[in-house]
């Protein structure tokens, strides 16, 4: 009977040990692991008459440049995880500058407003290079190049 009690106590102890935290310390490696890249300047691929996408983050654009043909569209995407509202205008450093030939949506200083989760496709009918900024986050810059 005494052996049975001892066996049960050992089983109980092993069960608790298996469910508890590990007491084994991690051993450092000789080779440091570099952090994952966090670049926000990836360019969208050149497209035909179709389109490209520029995505908004909290304080920057991802895919902050796009090249399309005249008549093509750029989708401006403000994912739900972006962290806030954006107002996109033509210009730089958070300031509106009128851009001849830019889409009508960008013809005034009120620009195009985005809330988290919004996605808007804007057609670019005229060839040219257009710079964009966010009036709320002046560090945000994007460029759309429209070829003939």
Task: List its salient traits.
4-stranded mixed beta sheet; 148 residues; Immunoglobulin-like; mainly beta; 12% helix; 10 strands; single chain
- Overall body shape: globular
CATH architecture of one domain: Sandwich
Q: N- to C-terminal separation?
A: 93 Å
SSE order, one letter for each helix or strand: HEEEEEEEEEE
Rg, alpha carbons: 27 Å
Unreliable spans are 4-49
Q: Tally the helices: what do you get?
A: 1
Bin the helical content: 10-25%
Oligomer: single chain
Mean pLDDT: 77
Q: Tell me, what is the CATH class of one domain?
A: Mainly Beta
Share of β-strand residues: 25-35%
Count of DSSP E strands? 10
CATH fold-level topology of one domain: Immunoglobulin-like
Broad structural category: mainly beta
CATH superfamily of one domain: Cupredoxins -  blue copper proteins
Main beta sheet? 6 strands, mixed
Notes on the structure:
It is a single chain. The chain is mostly beta strands. The chain has a domain of 97 residues: Immunoglobulin-like. The protein contains one helix and ten strands. The strands form two sheets. Strands 3, 5, 6, 7, 9 and 10 form a six-stranded mixed β-sheet that branches. Strands 2-1-4-8 form a four-stranded mixed β-sheet, with no helix packed on it. The longest helix is centred in the N-terminal third of the chain and has 18 residues. The chain is globular, with a radius of gyration of 27 Å. 22% of the residues are buried.
Structure in a nutshell:
With 148 residues, the protein is mainly beta.
